[in-house]
Amino acid sequence: MATDSELESDLLDEARGDWLDLFGAIAVVKIVEGGEGRLPLLRRAGPLLVGLVREGRLVCGEPDAEGGFTPWSAGAHEAAAVVEDHVRRALDGDLVLVPGEPCSFALPEEVRTT
Prior knowledge:
mainly alpha
């Protein structure tokens, strides 16, 4: 199993040049550590994403039709809380994972708005 910092680095690399969502993060964990099933993989990826958002190393937002990225107006801690709640609800079976929800993630230096 990779260390948290190694997996965080892999998640950040995946977000470089393109947006990342929960499904992308799940795929990174599957590639790096192996495993099966979205929820077990989310159990590993989710807290790491939350931490990266809270630290400001990933920004929550939505890609737009022109190739830009519209970041949420929420601060890092508030955005991390939204992602954390979404992950918890998915793990508890209270919601079904949908690509792009609750947001996409981008590196702060790669957020470009149009």
